[in-house]
Amino acid sequence: MKSILYIGLFAGILGLGACTQKQAPNMAEEQHVNEDVVDLTDVQAKNINLEIGQVEYKNISKHLKLNGKIDVPPQNLVSVSIPLGGYLKSTKMLPGTHVNKGQIIAVMEDPQYIQLQQDYLSVRSKLNYAAKELQRQKELNVDKANSDKILQQAETEYRNLNIERRALAEKLKLININADKLDENSLSRTINIYSPIDGYISEVNVNIGKYVTPSDVIFELVNPTDIHLNLTVFERDLDLVQIGQKAIAYTNSKPNQKYEAEVILVSHNVGGNRSAEIHCHFEKYDKSLVPGMYMNAEIELRNQKTATLPEAAIVSFENKDYVFVEIAKNKFKLTPVTVGETEQGYTTVDKNLAGKNIVTKGAYSVLMKMKNNESEEH
């Protein structure tokens, strides 16, 4: 009988312990819920100038953040080469040197320049004789003192020599020699290379005494006055970008220095990385901006009416954003929120907060009160 009594008593103790264990998680869960809720007295609400409001719908300008680099259009990037080749005799150009259009940037020399000038003068002399001979044959043919065949031969000779003269003149033009001013006293073994644009020397690829072929690029020149910003936009954002939109660009080294730009071209060719390029033109040219420089940019999208709250309504805690939603008089719950753009003191927030009463002033004071209560409880 005693054994049965002891067994029953032991089972009761175990049952009581099991009930206690089952109740513990519920208490802990209830305590966890209460950690996000804070109660204020009327006096406390008055002392912190507590204000309650709701989500307002306002036109907020959204910005698309992109990155890219400064580039120049092809017509402003020039490669200088020598169509006939030759040896570089002299140059004073260095990368970064400013040059004007028509300025001498190098002097070349080669025996073939002399030969080309000699050939031109020789053909021109023959052409003068052929012209006189043609005129004589025409006069003779009037009285039939010569045959038509001889006249045709004179005309053909004159025409062929004239074609050869023009071809040689064009070759001379390639090496910057004016054939009309050429005579036996102005033959030269050197030629000048002139800058085709106003701009800067970006690359020097030869040294004095080196022989360059027609395919070799001697200098790279760039005209930076028409530089533009080449930005990369991902496929998902491509439909948000349009020609004429304004952009604000800045560098990582000087983020406070802003440069205004405008979208002038949107590429709809999506590459392998699922992105496309857009081109922006700077409103004002700045010499500190050079091709190849990396920049960040924010493109202003069209104003959109969206849910907003005053900046003071949003509190940041442990790298997250929250608002206090009223669940009863002077009783508020800390609620996570996703924020967006901020403009004129208002920040875009989740639409699911619409219709709810939210602390719009004194939110950080409410947060401090809630955390102080937690410290006292622990």
TrEMBL record:
Where in the numbering of this chain does the CzcB-like barrel-sandwich hybrid domain appear? 78-222
Q: Which Pfam families does UniProt cross-reference here?
A: Beta-barrel_RND_2 (PF25954), BSH_CzcB (PF25973)
Domain CusB-like beta-barrel, which positions?
Answer: 229-299
Coiled-coil region list: 144-185
Q: Which InterPro entries match?
A: Beta-barrel_RND_2 (IPR058792), BSH_CzcB-like (IPR058647), MFP_Cation_Efflux (IPR051909), RND_pump_MFP (IPR006143)
Looking up PROSITE patterns in the UniProt record yields:
PROKAR_LIPOPROTEIN
Assigned protein family: Belongs to the membrane fusion protein (MFP) (TC 8.A.1) family.
Its protein name is Efflux RND transporter periplasmic adaptor subunit
**Origin organism of this chain?**
Pedobacter montanisoli
